[in-house]
Amino acid sequence: MTAHFTAARSVYARPEAPQKTPRSLEYDLLARITQRLTQAAAARRENHPGFIAALDENLRLWSTLAADVADAGNTLPQKLRAQLFYLYEFTSLHSRAIRNDKGSVEVLVDINTAVMRGLRGHGGDA
User: Fold this and answer.
1) This prediction's pTM
2) Which end of the chain has less Cβ packing within 10 Å, N or C?
3) Helices and strands of the chain, counted as H and E runs
4) Biological process (GO) annotations (predicted)?
5) Which string of DSSP letters, residue by residue, matches 28-80?
6) Position 76 pLDDT exceeds 70
7) d(CA 99, CA 56)
């Protein structure tokens, strides 16, 4: 999962910040987007456009992850790559359901949190 996130580092990292590993960059990005999604969901009624923007940001992250794990040069184990791609597909479908008031944001937060645990070395493959 590092190719796209190495490029994203220049967008999200401050120049004075110490160099981070690709895993820690992925973790930080997931954490920020998950926090925004959680906060936007709490204020959904007052700021629906902000909620939709947070939902879209989460989906863009997962789309980037999917492109990265689908790349032939990705060095993650094939099984993990397949699991992450499946999570992207699920996230895409579930985001659409949320827009139609037929899904729960908590499911997306749980997925992101599970992946963050995996990046930290807790909780299995993902």
Assistant:
1) 0.80
2) C
3) 5, 0
4) bacterial-type flagellum organization
5) HHHHHHHHHHHHHHHTTTT-HHHHHHHHHHHHHHHHHHHHHHHSTT--S-HHH
6) yes
7) 10
